[in-house]
Amino acid sequence: NAGVTQTPKFRILKIGQSMTLQCTQDMNHNYMYWYRQDPGMGLKLIYYSVGAGITDKGEVPNGYNVSRSTTEDFPLRLELAAPSQTSVYFCASRKTGGGLYNEQFFGPGTRLTVL
Amino acid sequence: AQSVAQPEDQVNVAEGNPLTVKCTYSVSGNPYLFWYVQYPNRGLQFLLKYITGDNLVKGSYGFEAEFNKSQTSFHLKKPSALVSDSALYFCAVREGGSQGNLIFGKGTKLSVKP
């Protein structure tokens, strides 16, 4: 299994540009998450999904959109990039069986800079 | 509301010495607690979790954590630190009433010197 994969690894955007961060998992996990990591701030949840076709907002959803058309893929869309969205973005997934206490598996991250 | 605090931004230890990375939590019900490690330029990796039962939880790479309900703490420990343990460590608590979402602390940078 490749686990959770993310593309691209790095990206520089200009203010106002749009982009999609890709996330794919091959573990057949129902739950998927998008986080952003800012220095000294830990991880903040942007959006999450409990299965194909179902998404919900996390703590910091403004400026982002998501979709979940398949179990495997959970792309994150930035419509109008702003400098405040400069961050490292992590995608994660979690299996459903065994309750709500299963650990999350993380991708390697996408480092985004908005100038 | 659920929250987790990591009071130390950085912990420095010498190789071979015991290490402790501190975590305290605030929850309204039963706490479900996790530790993750992040190596440079990598995603987070799961180390261990406390759901119920024994207060001493053993995890990956020789790490363990002690759950203390009266002190609302979940400190990460290792008897003998390795230089390769140098990384960023995150404590997390499961958000109550949610779909198992996690709330993360700010992280503690562990530096192990030879």
Explain how this protein is built.
Chain A is mainly beta. Chain A contains no helices and eleven strands. In chain A, a hairpin with a 2-residue loop joins strand 5 and strand 6. The relative contact order of chain A is 0.33. By secondary structure, chain B is mainly beta. Chain B is 0% helix and 51% strand. The mean pLDDT of chain B is 93. At the A-B interface, strand 5, strand 9 and strand 10 of A face strand 6 of B.
Q: How do the helices and strands line up, and which of them pair or pack?
A:
The complex is a heterodimer of chains A (115) and B (114).
Chain A: E1 4-7, E2 10-13, E3 19-25, E4 31-37, E5 43-51, E6 54-57, E7 64-66, E8 76-78, E9 87-94, E10 105-106, E11 110-114
Parallel strand pairs in A: 2-11
Antiparallel strand pairs in A: 1-3, 3-8, 4-5, 4-9, 5-6, 7-8, 9-10, 9-11
Chain B: E1 3-5, E2 10-14, E3 19-21, E4 24-26, E5 33-38, E6 44-50, E7 56-58, E8 64-68, E9 73-78, E10 87-94, E11 102-104, E12 108-113
Parallel strand pairs in B: 2-12
Antiparallel strand pairs in B: 1-4, 3-9, 5-6, 5-10, 7-8, 8-9, 10-11, 10-12
Radius of gyration of chain B: 14 Å
Overall pLDDT of chain A:
93
Distance between the termini of chain B: 41 Å
Low-pLDDT residue spans of chain B: none
Q: What structural class do helix, strand and pairing data of chain B support?
A: mainly beta
Helical coverage of chain A, percent range: under 10%
Give the biggest sheet of chain B: 6 strands, mixed
Overall, the morphology of chain A is globular
Q: Give the helix tally of chain A.
A: 0
What proportion of the residues of chain B form beta strands (DSSP E)?
A: over 45%
* Structure summary, number of beta strands of chain B: 12
Shape of chain B: globular
Major sheet summary line of chain A: 7 strands, mixed
Helix content of chain B: under 10%
Order of helices and strands of chain B: EEEEEEEEEEEE
Largest interface: A-B, 27 and 22 residues
Distance between the termini of chain A: 36 Å
**Multimeric state of these chains?**
heterodimer
Strand content of chain A: over 45%
Q: Give the tally of β-strands of chain A.
A: 11
The helix/strand series of chain A, from N terminus to C terminus, equals EEEEEEEEEEE
